[in-house]
Amino acid sequence: MSSLTRPARTARSRARSPMAAPQSFLWTRRIILTLLAGFVLLPVYVMVSSSLKPLQDVSGKFQWLPSTLTVQPYFDIWETVPLAKYFVNSLIVAGSATVLSVTIAVFSAYAVSRYRFRGKRVFTVTVLSTQMFPGILFLLPLFLIFVNIGNSTGVALYGSRGGLILTYLTFSLPFSIWMLIGYFDSIPRDLDEAALVDGCGPVRALFQVVVPAAVPGIVAVSVYSFMTAWGEVLFASVMTNDATRTLSVGLQGYATQNDVYWNQVMAASLVVSVPIVVGFLLLQRYLVAGLTAGAVK
Q1: What keyword terms does UniProt attach to this protein (predicted)?
Q2: CA gap 266, 262 in Å, rounded
């Protein structure tokens, strides 16, 4: 008899445990999480539903359920504006800016983290202080610099992909350096010393020992640099022309003087978001580890 009632007593004791959360808390948490999920997913639903509607349905009174479903906007977006060209431009610019930013940041952060040199503190403070200024302050100086360089040397930086890549480095590189400094500081120096004892030089020790251990931090920096360059609008609207225009600026082409193709805007916005979403899902575990590593030493 006692053996049969023992599981029931154990279940009641667990239910009455002072460490267990009360039912009111559990229901409150569920309600709040449901509201937050609805708040986040509502814009996504509006975008998806609007991209599957004819233009007259999107331009009129908003309807939660589409009266007519069509995928024609996903075909029209490539003809209304040269979206494929803008996509290639954004991919080249964002990819090149990410590769350059991460490469330079790895060497710079490793030097600051592992070596002592004159002006080290000034360098780190200067790198961090650049994040205090809004980007619009650099717009006019960079514009004048690129125009003067083009007039003096014939190198056309203004209106070119190379000029836009250099522009993106001005605000992605300082953050990348500062973030990797903290990550490299969290990696034990014994690994470097062991590699040096085994006959590796500093550069070889960096790539064979430190970089593999710093993959999460490097991935986090890469994702940040790519996302920043992919969705940037201010500099891209000034530093590009019709041949080098990126997606963030090219989406404005769906708004004409006579009408705004809202269904195509929503469809194009979903299409250009695919690389970011796919990349985030594939690199999510590295991104979370890279953002949290180095925070506590």
Answers
A1: Cell membrane, Membrane, Transmembrane, Transmembrane helix, Transport
A2: 6
